[in-house]
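From the methods appendix. Each design record in this collection lists the tokenized structure first, followed by the designed amino acid sequence. Records were kept in a plain field format so they could be parsed without special tools. The example shown here is representative of the layout used throughout.

RECORD:
FOLD TOKENS (382 positions):
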């Protein structure tokens, strides 16, 4: 089965990592072709994996009617050139244009909604564009994959497509042998992996750390336009010696294994991969209660979910983890077990392949990836 994957941006982000993992998880089952709007992390990985890829500079993230029309035409040409059996589109702009192009070319399409363009926290311009365009594109979708039940519910509340088209498949991430030891002694390490953009709230963490009654080590992994401001904030709070700003890194599993608690202060999310990576490492996770976070974290069992980004609330939670190595270890062990049950790459790949085959069943139904694992609970549901 040949599948054309469409995505807007190629930079290092959750949707791009998800797509790389999905292609890897479906190796041998699917012949992948990639269409993307720019060169970057994603095209580099595609080259190393030997995946055919095409850069479409007309496909840009900002709303641009002229470029969008050109991108639509280019996508139709790409579909006719590569002749896929199925289109699988990711992210908002490629998701809308890709499904329209698939409809024009007479090819079935699937869309994965990592987060909706009209979700809380997105700009008014994107919300105004997002709702009508997603309703239109949904008409051309064979199925719509939501990465969380929260995402699915948001789409249905906004009347995006027919209910029977929507399903939920949780993100999955590949396993590693690297494990954290959250109950170990020494100076506790807290780590957050996220870009420095308005969506995230690293500043709330800095203020919380400044309130703790003993030294800790806080590591930020990621880059972005707001990084310099947060570095200045750390200096203003007098905690610059406790905080590391590492920028973009490719050794995330190693970094996670060297820390004691994963933290994600954020304003909105779909279903963050970073949380799953932390659970895979055996770390307790503390996150703001947004999007599908509660579907990953079981409060009091694998970590904690906080109602907002109030530094006082964060400080109280982090203090409890700072005071109890045994609590950190118990939560981390449970987080690892939950990852193994629900969030493996093979589980995600198996369920995604089942969706593909439900749309193009004539292409065969041989054993799916990960068939030797214990079956996962069905996530292809409402």
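DESIGN:
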């Amino acid at each position: 089965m040949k599948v054309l994957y469409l995505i807007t941006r190629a930079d290092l982000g959750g949707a791009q990592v998800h797509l790389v993992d999905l292609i890897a998880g479906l190796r041998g089952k699917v012949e992948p072709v990639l269409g993307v709007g720019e060169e970057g992390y994603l095209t580099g990985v595609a080259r190393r994996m030997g995946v055919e890829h095409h850069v479409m500079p007309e496909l840009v993230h900002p709303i641009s009617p002229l470029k969008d029309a050109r991108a639509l035409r280019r996508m139709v040409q790409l579909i006719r050139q590569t002749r896929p059996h199925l289109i699988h589109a990711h992210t908002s702009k490629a998701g809308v244009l890709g499904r329209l192009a698939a409809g024009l070319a007479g090819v079935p399409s699937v869309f994965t909604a990592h987060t909706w363009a009209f979700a809380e926290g997105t700009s008014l311009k994107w919300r105004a564009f997002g709702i009508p365009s997603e309703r239109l594109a949904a008409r051309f979708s064979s199925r719509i994959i939501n990465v969380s039940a929260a995402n699915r519910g948001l789409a249905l509340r906004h009347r995006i497509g027919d209910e029977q088209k929507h399903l939920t498949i949780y993100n999955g991430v590949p396993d590693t042998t690297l494990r954290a030891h959250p109950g170990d002694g020494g100076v506790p390490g807290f780590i957050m992996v996220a870009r420095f953009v308005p969506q995230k709230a690293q500043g709330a963490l800095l203020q919380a750390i400044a309130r703790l009654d003993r030294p800790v080590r806080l590591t930020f992994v990621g880059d972005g336009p707001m990084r310099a401001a947060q570095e200045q904030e750390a200096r203003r709070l007098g905690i610059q010696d406790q905080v590391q700003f590492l920028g973009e890194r490719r050794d995330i599993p190693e970094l996670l294994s060297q820390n004691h608690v994963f933290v994600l202060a954020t304003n909105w999310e779909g279903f963050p991969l970073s949380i799953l990576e932390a659970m895979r490492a055996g770390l307790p996770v503390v996150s703001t209660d947004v999007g599908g976070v509660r579907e990953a974290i079981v409060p009091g069992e694998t970590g904690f979910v906080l109602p907002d980004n109030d530094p006082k609330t964060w400080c109280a939670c982090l203090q409890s983890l700072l005071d109890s190595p045994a609590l950190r270890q118990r939560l981390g062990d449970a987080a690892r077990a939950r990852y193994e049950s629900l969030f493996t790459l093979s589980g995600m790949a198996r369920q995604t392949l089942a969706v593909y085959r439900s749309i193009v069943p004539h292409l065969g139904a041989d054993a799916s990836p990960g068939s030797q694992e214990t079956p996962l609970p069905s996530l292809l549901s409402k």
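APPENDIX NOTE: Residues 365-382 have pLDDT under 50 and may be disordered.
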